[in-house]
């Protein structure tokens, strides 16, 4: 039985729903384009940079499912369900952005990255569910397209600010291992912009109450959730396999002399095996109301389309995280001949990376609103995403075909098209296939497959660089192109939704 349909929203309302993401993405863009630069300015070597980035994916892995679970069950009256998390995360992230360029040492900067990424994830994760909460299913594609446009626009602003400040006369020099004034002022600007943008969404939107949500799409008549009963019927075999996989990773570190941060990857696998065993034991004893049982049960009971899209996301985000971590050393060394962060040529190249990042995000903004919807209507969302991912692979591969760093702007066109599709198509396909009352937790779990590949890169890329192309970070772009092709192949297994 179907209930009341959600009202369709106009463009101004679509704008208000997603405008906060504009500020969040300014914060992410500043982080993505400048943290490697900050780490190297504070004394990190190239092969140690991925390990310092490990805080970002680890916090996302822990935070997103928890925030998704909690936001599904939150109602704070006029403040609503998702908006309390938007606001709390934005305030914490703003403070972290203000503090980051004042980091006195490398370890302090790494700890601040942990806090910053956790705060950004607290704000970001509920925004994905917010679109599904507020819009009828036939507006999901439009909602995620507008959200993607704001993501692209925010990233353009965040990426271009250091370069623009230099053009305005702000010093871009980094004497004695310090942070350039361009980066310092950019982070301060980003902190303020993030808080103001999220406040706009908080103050201009009204969420549907639990009673209203229960009436939409017949949710009041929905069948009882069987996830926890399925969890209680499971054996401990899968838990043992997760733990065994973690143990094998730990042994591989010792056997093959991998970087020590790979221990973290093994430890997380073991930890999930133990957590799932505890959840199964609690469910068998009838004590399944806790968060752990819900998260483990929902993770193991993901819908089939979500599982197939998860593999696509894994490969896609391996490529993206390689780009964010390695583009600065790759461009500064291969195109500007500078590996030393104190060199003016290095700082010039690092600023050009900000321009490149702004370029692919600018392309993504246009592609999300114009190109991708047109292609999706003509050939379907699945084929559109396959084509976009292949454009991204060509963009990464083209780093080896040009010698002038200005021509890398052409490479960013393909990367921008892929980025727009990664942010829109999987979520548009997924949102219409998920139960509305659990949209937060499933979106949080889906984002695990955004986070795990980042953790994979953060823990393993240092070993790959060290053993296969020491001192030549440009070759990481070839690795990114290859895994983007794998993402396109995996997408072919996803069925076109009705």
Please explain how this structure is put together:
- With 498 residues, the chain is mainly alpha-helical.
- It has two domains: 416 residues, Growth Hormone, Chain: A (Up-down Bundle), CATH 1.20.1250.20; 65 residues.
- The chain is 74% helix and 0% strand.
- It is built from 19 helices and no strands.
- Helix 9 packs across helix 12 and helix 13 runs parallel beside helix 18.
Notable characteristics:
mainly alpha; 498 residues; 2 domains; globular; Growth Hormone, Chain: A; 74% helix; 0% strand; single chain
Summarize it.
Helices cover 74% and strands 0% of the residues. With 498 residues, it is an all-alpha fold.
* Chain-averaged pLDDT: 85
| DSSP strand content | under 5%
- CATH C-level class of the largest domain is Mainly Alpha
**Radius of gyration based on Cα positions:** 22 Å
Low-pLDDT sequence parts: 219-224
Quickly give the CATH architecture of the largest domain.
Answer: Up-down Bundle
**What is the helix fraction of residues, given as a range?**
over 70%
Query: What number of structural domains do the residues give?
Result: 2
Name the CATH homologous superfamily of the largest domain.
MFS general substrate transporter like domains
CATH topology of the largest domain: Growth Hormone, Chain: A
Largest sheet: none
Structural class: mainly alpha
Tell me the total number of β-strands. 0
Number of helix segments? 19
List SSEs in N-to-C order. HHHHHHHHHHHHHHHHHHH
Whole-Å distance between the termini? Answer: 20 Å
């Amino acid at each position: 039985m179907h209930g009341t349909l959600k009202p369709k929203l106009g463009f101004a309302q679509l704008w208000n729903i997603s405008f906060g993401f504009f500020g969040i993405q300014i914060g992410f863009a500043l982080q993505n384009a400048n943290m490697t630069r900050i780490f190297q300015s504070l004394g990190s070597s190239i092969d140690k940079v991925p390990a310092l980035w490990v805080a970002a994916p680890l916090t996302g892995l822990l935070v997103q499912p928890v925030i998704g679970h909690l936001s599904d069950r939150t109602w704070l009256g006029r403040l609503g369900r998702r908006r309390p998390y938007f606001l709390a995360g934005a305030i914490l992230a703003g403070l972290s952005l203000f503090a980051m360029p004042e980091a006195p040492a490398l370890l302090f900067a790494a700890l601040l990255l942990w806090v910053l990424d956790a705060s950004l994830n607290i704000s970001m994760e509920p925004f994905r569910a917010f679109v599904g909460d507020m819009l009828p299913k036939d507006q999901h594609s439009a909602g995620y397209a507008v959200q993607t446009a704001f993501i692209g626009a925010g990233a353009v602003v965040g990426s271009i600010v250091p370069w623009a400040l230099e053009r305005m006369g702000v010093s871009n020099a980094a004497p004695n291992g310090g942070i350039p004034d361009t980066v310092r002022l950019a982070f301060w600007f980003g902190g303020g912009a993030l808080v103001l943008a999220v406040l706009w969404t908080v103050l201009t939107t009204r969420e549907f109450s639990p009673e209203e949500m229960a009436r939409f799409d017949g949710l009041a008549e929905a069948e009882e959730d069987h996830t926890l009963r399925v969890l209680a019927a499971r054996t401990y075999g899968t838990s043992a396999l997760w733990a065994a996989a973690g143990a094998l990773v730990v042994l591989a570190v010792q056997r093959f002399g991998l970087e020590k941060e790979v221990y973290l990857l093994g430890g997380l696998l073991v930890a999930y095996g133990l957590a799932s065993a505890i959840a199964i034991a609690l469910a068998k004893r009838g004590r399944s109301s806790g968060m752990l049982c819900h998260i483990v049960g929902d993770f193991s009971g993901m819908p089939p389309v979500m599982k197939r899209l998860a593999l696509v996301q894994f490969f896609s985000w391996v490529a993206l995280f390689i780009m964010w971590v390695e583009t600065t050393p790759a461009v500064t060394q291969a195109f500007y001949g500078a590996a030393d962060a104190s060199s003016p040529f290095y700082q010039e190249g690092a600023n050009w990376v900000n321009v490149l990042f702004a370029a692919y995000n600018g392309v993504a903004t246009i592609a999300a609103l114009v190109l991708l919807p047109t292609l999706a209507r003509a050939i379907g969302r699945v084929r559109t995403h396959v084509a976009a991912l292949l454009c991204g692979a060509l963009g990464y591969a083209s780093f080896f075909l040009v010698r002038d760093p200005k021509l890398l702007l052409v490479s960013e066109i393909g990367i921008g098209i892929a980025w727009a599709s990664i942010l829109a198509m999987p979520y548009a396909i997924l949102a219409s296939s998920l139960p509305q009352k659990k949209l937060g937790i499933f979106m949080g779990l889906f984002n695990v497959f955004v986070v795990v590949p980042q953790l994979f890169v953060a823990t393993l890329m240092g070993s790959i660089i060290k053993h296969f192309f020491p001192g030549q970070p440009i070759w990481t772009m070839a690795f990114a192109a290859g895994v983007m092709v794998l993402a396109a192949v995996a997408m072919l297994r996803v069925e076109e939704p009705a």
